[in-house]
User: Fold this.
Amino acid sequence: MRRRTGPPTGRFRTACAALVLGTALLAPLPQGAAAATAGPDPAPDHCLNQGLSQCTDILPPGQNGNATLADILLHQVLGTRPAHSSDQLARYESLVGGYGGLTDARLTDFFNDASFGVPADQVESVATPRPDVTITRDRKTGVPHIKGTTRYGTEFGAGYAAAQDRLWMMDLFRHIGRGELTSFAGGALANQGLEQQFWPQAPYTEADYEAQIARIRGTEGARGEQAMADAQAYVDGINAYRGQAKDGRYFPGEYVLTGHIDSITNVGEIQPFKLTDLIAIASVVGGQFGGGGGGEVQAALSLLAAQQKYGVVEGTAVWESFRQRNDPEAVLTVHDGTSFPYAEKPANPRGTALPDPGSVRAEQLVYDRTGSAGTGARAPVHAPQRLRPAQGIFDDGVLPPGSLDPKRGMSNALLVSGAHTASGNPVAVFGPQTGYFAPQLLMLQELQGPGISARGVSFAGVGMYVQMGRGQDYAWSATSAAQDLTDTYAIELCQDDTHYLYRGVCTPMEKLEKRNAWKPTVADGTAEGSYRMQVWRTKYGIVTHRATVGGKPVAYTTLRTTYRHEADSIIGFQLLNDPSYVTDAASFQQAVHHIDYAFNWFYADSRTAAYYNSGMNPVRAAGVDPALPVKAEQAYEWQGFDPAANTAAYTPFAQHPQSVGQDYYISWNNRQAKDYNTAGFGFGAVHRGDLLDGRVAELVADGGVTRASLTRAMAEAGVTDLRGEQLLPELLAVVRSQPVADPQLNAAVQKLDAWRAAGAQRKETSPGSHAYAHAEAVRIMDAWWPLLVEAEFRPGLGDELYAALTASLAVDESPAANHGPTGAHGGSAFQNGWWGLADKDLRRVLGRPVAGPLARPYCGGGVLSACRETLLTTLGQAVAKPANQVYPGDENCAAGDQWCTDAIVHRALGGITHPVVHWQNRPTYQQVVEFPTHR
Assistant:
């Protein structure tokens, strides 16, 4: 593993320093940035109060995500970093130790001033890539403030600034989306895994990409034409910088290290960007953060396992109780009781297509492997001496495995309406939780031009508009939603394995292929290899599995409403940036209704807080159960389904969960509203949203909420162990139902109870100590939880059903659970786990009320004394498990290092790494806003 998170030491640094410094002195500097002068006048800013901004934001590690070859070599040898690449990280981390005494006046100690424009004495540079646009960067953060006198110039500037800050990353993501990462960045196993993960979700041809662009132009009227003109201007700006950087030799150094450009002769090319590349990037972003549903085959397998153990009737009841698709105890964003029925379980399901037991097999994706394909065999090149400090930086891939796992939980939001705040204006603390990368997937920018006025973040490569941020007198943000936009169809085969029945006609499947080959480079020493990826496309989507249903051979396909529509959401983002369109909560809700992905959207201005859930929710045929595979027959298709462009009838605006002026809103990827069913497991009586809901409800009850108090609530929840706060009281109640006679176990119980009483936090004793308070209790909890869940449920469920259910919902996702869906060091935690299931089961054993209980008792068979014995036995096993086994260590942390195991590591997409920082379960980009006035 060549990625380092701090400066190297020893003779290696001494030997290389002179060579690298020589390389740095020869490297040209970026051109086009004029000396610091006053930037353009700022746009109207209603977040100012007596000259001070009440809008702040933060996006670690820093704005600058490009590094020249000299920058990379200096970093590898001396530990230096380019300007503005890491200057927001320390402030972001320091909130862990600083939130306790936080006041409104001290918010800018931990966040950026997010007001419009740059004061004259804070200007670092002003660039003019065209006469009709200026890009002003501030000294503190280097954020680009782009102001155009024409629409084209504004968008050109956005693309130019994006390339200045994220050129290499954008290139990576267009190749990930196109399924061509290994050919571009090297054949490391992690790179193979990334393209195998994303390409089958959107295996488009160039004609498919072009069709999406034509559709927007042809169906969205003037807004669609403007959107495509904006996108083209953005691409033109990217390409302008791309060409200048290449000719001026200040392009990202990763192009040299991956063999695309010769560092001496400058021979080579950075391929021009095209409009279709933006669709490829959008397919990755949308699939990662805005998808919803899927997994129906795995759900069917767990249902079959339940039916096999208990019989059809009782087995189905058991499965439904674990599925918890409409749990009455689940925390909700719209908590006033308003019902928004969607994707409910039908009383009499029709068309369900469960596979025959044992018949399911996953569709093969990879063929014709040669060389290192699938093996990761190494054959390092003989690198020139000047490049050796950076040799092997991508040996483990451009991203570690699991970094872009679609199960990753994302984003939170806390909003309080003005009736409960000190000022009488709504207060919001919100942002997307998109993981930790270097550079970040998101990029900060301010855009000011004709019809555009906003500051905030966009995903790099699709940043024509601010996607989450603030306008002149309003701010907005999003969390990923979980409603069901994706269904699985069982298509009946005919003639052979590549033909199927479509509305009674035997129809050929369409074969789509992607061939990749790679050779070792300085960055990635993976030996030469190649393979071919292949998928079969049908009118019902992409084939994912083969099976039999009732003895007949079928293929299972996955179809999502956003397939072939990845770019359509551009209209919604265009509207959000238009100050003439968004003037209040109602117009905001109409704007985000144009966004097709499954997101929860939040809004605050000086008068109102509001919420809306977006997504292309299909109108399903009556009686279809969306949680399970369905027969591919016309009677069970989406209403109005037209496979030519993958269109259908969608639920109307009024049927989406929404609210204006509720006392408060919280979201941490929890359920949206009553009767709005979730697309997956894990939305029950205990959810990480409860960490926010309880705290904000208490603030609202007390009244006088401020930006600081709401930020404190977020920050406290962000270092709290969900199990310790929500489950430990019940676990201890069972254990203490009789005196604990064993001295060692009694001591462990006392430590756990003291930790619970202190807030169940995973937090340093003092900033920089790298040691948790109540460290022993945290270790015991980390060791105990997976043991107790298995001992509580597996005996009753049986091995097969327990395995099937854990395949649908992981048992644990603490920050130390390296086996969890997010992998290690990912920040986001406690999204996926058996918390709600254990909670209901333990309350039942304790004789407490349970709404929506599990169909059967599990812990000790429902007998308190037997359950207690189970918990004590597993607690003893946890106490005996040493720290070096609970925290086994990795390339970043020594075995037994509890703090480091939890800690956040920014996953390097290029040659610059960053220090390991304290764990926080917190948005990556975050705003704190309170508008005092309105237009």
Remarks:
- The first strand starts at residue 33 and ends at 34.
- The chain is about 35% helix and 20% strand.
- Confidence is low (pLDDT under 50) at residues 1-21.
- The radius of gyration is 27 Å.
